[in-house]
Request: fold
Amino acid sequence: MSTATISRVLNDSPLVTEPTRRRVLKAVEALAYRPSHAARTLARRCTDTLGVVFPRIGSGFYTEILQGIDEIAAAHGFHLVTAFAHGLRDEKELMTQFMRGDRVDAAILLNLDFRDPSLFQLGTQHVPVVLIDEPIPGADLSVVEIDNRGGAEAAMMHLLGHGYRDIAVIAGPPGNYDSDARLESCLTVANRIGVTIPEERLFFGNFTSESGETIAQQWFDEGRPIPRAILALNDVMALGVMETLRAHGLRVPEDVALAGMDDCEAASYVGLTTVHVPIRDMGREACRIAVAHIKGALTVEKRVMPTQLITRRTCGCSEG
Reply:
């Protein structure tokens, strides 16, 4: 029996008859043969591996996305190589390695600071790239992002619908893609109906509960008037604000109404009104697109994942 026939059987070729397939598999079992993964991937010019690059460790947001990616990757027989970049230089080095074409079959990237479109355009001739959450201007790449503007508009409109007018907004770091889009949408919708969010009611954290706590604590330390309602542009900061308000004896929502964004797991436990973001679905969709590119799909896909307002009790609504 030729080596070509054996190779066809081990690679599930439809060109092999069933009797021949059974004979080869019986011989393989008798010899306790194990195919070399490296040799097989080299012969097929692929690695069965997807590269995933995140900007940092320690975010539940990234964990949810990674779980979604892994679900689809496993279903298609791909392994994941996950890297967490530490700064711009590290991101560039990781991208250069991935773009060489012999490490991974596709790369999935989330919110990197490295923005050189020329490297991405050159690299994608060898390795497909899918972006999650933030497109790169000048690079014609598939991207899966959130409807940040629609979600923030829904949250702000809901607070305004309760009759709140003294509203503070706690955004993420200036320059952050998601935060900038959410903040702009909040201010636009408020202005559209004649409500001004003054500069002294705009605050900037870093998406952590500690930054939410710090911002709220400053109001008390500096004797500032406490806003009647607060929209934090992610749930984790909202939870930090809630902790500080309650530590100072204020009730949510009776004294201060509160809403967040993202619908993290803890939000439902404390009754936080929020905007649901399909985080795991973003990972699934990005991986689906990456697999399609590996299999030869050339169409660049642009997907905007829908968001949904989830009303709970912290805004003044009754749950249930």
